[in-house]
Amino acid sequence: MADRGPLSTLARLFRLWRLYARLDLYFVTRSFRTFVVWYVTDMIFGVSAISGMLLLAERFAGIGVWNKEQGLFLLGYAATVTGLLEIFFGFNVAFISRRLGRGQFDHTLIQPQPVWMALLTEGFTPFAGSATLVPGAALLAWAILHLHRTLSPGWLAMLLVSLVASTAIFLAFQYALGSLAFWAPRAAEEINSSSANLMGQLKAFPLDGLRVLLMGGLLTVLPVGFVAWAPCRYLLGLTPGFRAGFATPLAALLLGALAALLFAKGMSHYGRTGSQRYSSFGHRR
Amino acid sequence: MAAAGQIGESPLFLMDYLLRFLRVALLLSIWRLLFAGRGAVSGMTLPALLTYTLIAEAFAEPLLCRTEIVWAFWDGSIATRFLRPMGLFAQFAADAFGRWSVGFAVFSLPLLLCAPLLGVNPLPASLMAGLLFPVSLALSISVGLAMEFIFMALAVLFEGEIYAISRVRQALVVLLSGAFLPLALMPWGLGKIFDWLPFAAMASAPLRIYTGTGRPAWLLATQLGWTLLLWPLASWLWRISRERMVSYGG
């Protein structure tokens, strides 16, 4: 704990990811039957989330200004973002309101490491959590191959940056909303389920043709437009201009800062009230 | 009791419904985008499709027909449910009706009232369609509840993961029932196949009756047929599986 340089911190992050990957592997191999049931279930659930739009893209040979291949790219991108979220932020790390509402956050607070480091690593489930990423990445790769575009290193780098930024936006939204559970643990305990469901359902929708007010709302209040639509428009050349590529990373920074601020305020409140897990109105009453 | 439990300790529960309003607005926009410059597609015009979507969202809870049984398994409270002087099916059905009543008051009614502002006609296609819709909705709930108990009984019977099986059911219902995507608009003739499944009796049938895009007599007959087939099956599966039930929770 003595050395806190950036390289030391990075090395520790990788050590923790390796540790949690090993634990995840133990989980997978402990009961293969259970693993298969959960894996297939998650895959069905992940695919069904985009199947509606997939069927529409096929039936109408595209969706609005998006041709079929572009539509599939959008769906693959959206599923990949969900997959990344599930791989890196499993065990309810992405559903922070559940941990807060159930008083489980105390388990994180007593660990001898910063909270951010615990949250960034302890949900890492590369094996059990890959059920959505595999079909999502496959669809994305299929769409890229059928788009017949030249794959420059710059474009691939922007794809990677956009995927990370979109994942960060999804997560930041979950934390901004989930922080409500600091103040209303019971009412807000499941609020992240609703928000994640909604983001999950809407992430693959093309927002073209929406009225300005609604589109503005879907890029700010409920930033679902940045989960797939806006970055995909840039990556596919539907939104011209180099600067458009920075919109999603910039939105990720702004929303991330807002989420961090709300979470810090919630933590401050939590420091005064403590866990309500075992109180007369707590989760385990 | 269920309604009071859903409202909880603060008005935050309303946020869920606010998010659903956004979803409706977005769905309507998608249909307008897809149908721009097109006439009827597979017998569905844009106004009929918009009404279909609006009614599907307004009645989403009864059409998708979820009870709290999965959570009762999850947290172990299913054990105490067996001690109550009331049948298990009746308990969870009554509980579901209580929760749906909250959703109907704070979401469905305002949505239906706001429909003209969204450019959607919320009225049924005809007086007959309006009269038959409640009958079809009741049959839809009946089929949905039977399916719910069949899935849960199968989970017990095969000692499966209740939550996992519940997720599969949810995914299948959303895709195959026509609640999100009307079966008639599916490619490769998939809709014609899915029409024969019990999932179609849950959402597609009442919505097609309401919007006048299907034959009411045939749709009601299929719903009744599935009800008569599925309830004895649900009852039998529970009878043979209940003693195998294992519940943890806490």
Strand order of the largest sheet of chain A: 1-2
Q: Give helix % range of chain B.
A: 55-70%
Q: Termini separation of chain B (Å)?
A: 21 Å
Q: Stretches of chain B where pLDDT falls below 50 for ≥5 residues?
A: none
Proportion in helices of chain A: 55-70%
Would you report the number of β strands of chain A?
2
Summed over residues and divided by their number, the pLDDT of chain A gives a mean of 86
Number of domains of chain B: 1
Number of helices in the DSSP assignment of chain B: 13
Query: Helices and strands of chain B, in N-to-C order?
Result: HHHHHHHHHHHHH
Structural class designation of chain B: mainly alpha
Number of strands of chain B: 0
Instruction: List low-confidence stretches of chain A.
Output: none
- Count of alpha and pi helical runs of chain A: 12
Strand content of chain A is under 5%
**Oligomeric state, counting identical vs distinct chains:** heterodimer
Structural class label of chain A: mainly alpha
Shape of chain A: globular
Name the chain pair whose interface involves the most residues.
A-B, 42 and 37 residues
Main β-sheet description of chain B: none
Cα radius of gyration of chain B in angstroms: 19 Å
Task: Describe how the helices and strands are arranged.
The complex is a heterodimer of chains A (285) and B (250).
Chain A lengths: L5 H25 L1 H28 L2 E2 L2 E2 H21 L7 H6 L3 H5 L5 H7 L11 H14 L6 H26 L12 H12 L9 H8 L9 H7 L11 H27 L12
Antiparallel strand pairs in A: 1-2
Chain B lengths: L1 H6 L6 H22 L10 H13 L1 H5 L4 H7 L2 H4 L6 H27 L12 H31 L4 H15 L13 H5 L3 H5 L1 H8 L4 H26 L9
Helix pairs in contact in B: 2-3, 2-7, 3-7, 3-12, 8-9, 8-12, 8-13, 12-13
